[in-house]
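are you around this afternoon, could really use another pair of eyes. what follows is a protein written twice so to speak, once as letters and once as structure tokens for the fold. i want to understand how the tokens follow from the sequence so walk me through it. anything you notice is useful, everything is just below.
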Amino acid sequence: MVRTVEDLARLVIKAAEDKKAEKLTVLDIKNLSVIADYFMICHGNNERQVQAIVREIRDQAHKHGYSVRGIEGEEEGRWVLVDLEDVVIHVFHREDREFYNLERLWKDAEVVTFSEEG
């Protein structure tokens, strides 16, 4: 079975949703940056929830054979960046998400949705 970046995106979405991540937004940045294909942005309501979301994303990625290139900010639980190469996830504390407003900074990116079945 060939795995696609969209498969990885679906896996990350499910992992984040399983830990009650809020306002999950997926931005297609393929044509805007060489950093990744997708940015995912979500938030938790406190540091502990942010850390739980990040752990679930990391654990599910490892379980399914994806490589986690790096995680920054996990200990603080305010703005955590998870680098899965083609998918970069920003997990914010609710207050920090409102402050940094990455959706505004990447306003030229298309917001996309993924169905569960592909």
